[in-house]
């Protein structure tokens, strides 16, 4: 009788272990991390419109999140939208808290740090100033603000490498998010904000007293151009390949363009470059 009880208990324990294992990572090495619980966890900055943000109803949305939703739908995955602090994005990714970083994520300067999809957006870093600003040249700027860990900060750091650059003659301050940066601009705490053009367009739609420096006049206000892609933990090619394959299908059947057109106010349809990279 005791042996029968032990046998039943052993079988029960094995069943429990197998059931629990289904919710764990089936391949825990650093090169390929794919969960089996049908969840796809996207890490994003919740204050980075139009790519990821909270709408008036309190829901997380945005261009990148809509793309992720469609990718999940086509692959029978459940999308988990996980807002993160941008300056801890690597910790979130490497710890397995998120499966990817999908939020206007710049390849430039990070080429070897992640496993990337192909680029799908060409972006520009621009300068935003107040409408009544007397700034008619970048050298007139005394202080400038941008977000910590943003592509704009990376651009400014690159410009500093030129000893003759105007950037070396100004005070640069960093904020945790761009909303704070733009409030500082409106209140006069800073002269200008360096930011992605999509985010700039969004802020200008909500803050009528701001403008993009030299917008429509020349390229002097464009600090750099860069490309966005989806970043995975280095070596995680399985999810990368899935996302690339699905984005290609979405572009070919028109869904990708349909989503991009929702964000015309942010200039997004004119920034799409996926057609240059899909096979």
Give structural notes.
By secondary structure, the chain is of the alpha/beta class. The chain folds into 2 domains: 31-120 and 229-276, D-Maltodextrin-Binding Protein, domain 2, CATH 3.40.190; 124-225, 3-Layer(aba) Sandwich (D-Maltodextrin-Binding Protein, domain 2), CATH 3.40.190. It is 33% helix and 22% strand. It has helices at residues 2-21, 63-74, 89-94, 151-160, 178-187, 197-206, 237-252, 255-261, and strands spanning 39-44, 47-48, 52-54, 60-61, 78-83, 100-101, 115-116, 121-130, 143-147, 171-175, 192-196, 210-212, 222-228, 231-232. The strands form 3 sheets. Strands 8, 9, 10, 11, 12 and 13 form a 6-stranded mixed sheet that branches. Strand 2 (47-48) and strand 3 (52-54) form a beta hairpin. Helix 2 crosses helix 7 (237-252). The longest helix has 20 residues, at 2-21. The chain is globular, with a radius of gyration of 22 Å. Mean pLDDT is 87; it is low at 14-35.
* Overall pLDDT confidence: 87
Number of strands: 14
- State the distance separating the first and last CA atoms: 65 Å
Shape: globular
The parts where pLDDT drops under 50 for at least 5 residues are 14-35
